């Protein structure tokens, strides 16, 4: 599984990354996590509000620091 967090390092982006790591640990899942801060790549996904949450090249969420529970639901 390839997961991307699209954003420029704002507090919501950091919170999303923290919650993602917790969710992966609780689910006992492995994933490649990539932080993307290149504005052209963000726009290529159609993300105009950060953070963007992308799983296997499919945008799952935009502009929200997802909770651990929300992330787990998206990954299972």
Overview of this structure, please?
The structure is a single chain. This protein has 3 helices and 4 strands, in the order βαβαββα. It is α+β, with helices and mostly antiparallel strands. The protein has one domain: Glutaredoxin.
Q: What would you say about this model in short?
A:
The protein has 76 residues and is an alpha+beta fold. It contains 3 helices and 4 strands, in the order βαβαββα.
CATH architecture term: 3-Layer(aba) Sandwich
The amount of helix comes to 40-55%
Instruction: Give the radius of gyration.
Output: 11 Å
Mean of residue pLDDT? 95
Continuous helix count: 3
Strand order of the largest sheet: 2-1-3-4
Q: CATH superfamily name?
A: Glutaredoxin
CATH class: Alpha Beta
Elements, N to C (H/E): EHEHEEH
**Gross geometry:** globular
Largest sheet: 4 strands, mixed
Residue share in β-strands: 25-35%
Helix/strand-derived class? alpha+beta
Unreliable parts: none
N- and C-termini, Cα separation: 12 Å
CATH topology: Glutaredoxin
Count of separate structural domains? 1
């Amino acid at each position: 599984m390839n997961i991307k967090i699209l954003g420029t390092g704002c507090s919501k982006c950091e919170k999303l990354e923290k919650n993602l790591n917790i969710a992966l640990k609780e689910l006992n899942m492995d994933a490649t996590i990539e932080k993307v801060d290149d504005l052209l790549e963000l726009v290529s996904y159609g993300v105009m509000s950060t953070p963007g949450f992308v799983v296997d090249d499919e945008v799952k969420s935009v502009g929200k620091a997802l909770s651990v529970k929300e992330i787990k639901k998206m990954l299972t």
